[in-house]
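# nightly structure sweep
# worker-07 picked up a monomer target from the shared queue
# config: single-sequence mode, recycle default, output format = structure tokens
# input follows
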Amino acid sequence: MRYQAHDAPGFTIVLAGLAWLTLEGEAPIQIGEGDFILLPTTPALTLGSRPGVECIPVAPSNEAVRHGDQEGDADFVALGGSFAIDRINAPLLLQLLPRLIHIPASQGRSTRLGRFIDLLSEECVTDFPGRELIIERLLEALLVEALRWRRNGTSTMPPGLFGGLQEPAIARALHAMHGDVRVNWTVARLAGVAGMSRSSFSARFGELVGCAPIEYLARWRMAIAKAALARGMKSLDRIADEIGYESASAFSTAFRKRIGLPPGQFARGVA
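# output follows
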């Protein structure tokens, strides 16, 4: 089966059998019963019984679908879906997440993630009142649990926000920025929060998060601004003050430079 790229995080839970997953431009990986796959940005991909097998184009469906031979036991059974993200700030989130999270059954089933998967699988085959609400909440919990999962035996993660949060010193700096974005944060000041030298902090932050500390702060401020502009409840002066700019003019200049259009035009475009 060949799926087109999907502009949203996608997941697959393998319920039975084995298959080969191939993301566009990457080597195939084998997935089996109990494995969990999370694709924060879902590229074009194929699922097949072996690498290189001819695939037919298919589209996701809300109903159970059997592809290929309609007789006998299926080679592979999976439960899949996607998560909806507020499109205003989806680019920020997706830039900070790894391309693929693959949690093998041997490492996921014995954790809370495994229990979430069991509950979700059970709920999907029931017709109880409140089914959709429970599935939605379980998926939210499953997403967060997968994002903060750490492979057994290693402390490394691909660069991104969750990678930074895994290391206490960098996490302190991230929490400080998130906690008070109005502060005139500098690399030196953030390094002090982290308890590191300026050079060591900058290097480690970039390695774990994937961008420089002040660049991350700028992205975060713009994310808050875009959300506020989309809601249309605050003046430019107030937004500027809340994210640490001295004036609406300074904020507007920074917003235009980073986003490519002035705040007012952005707000009208998402209204």
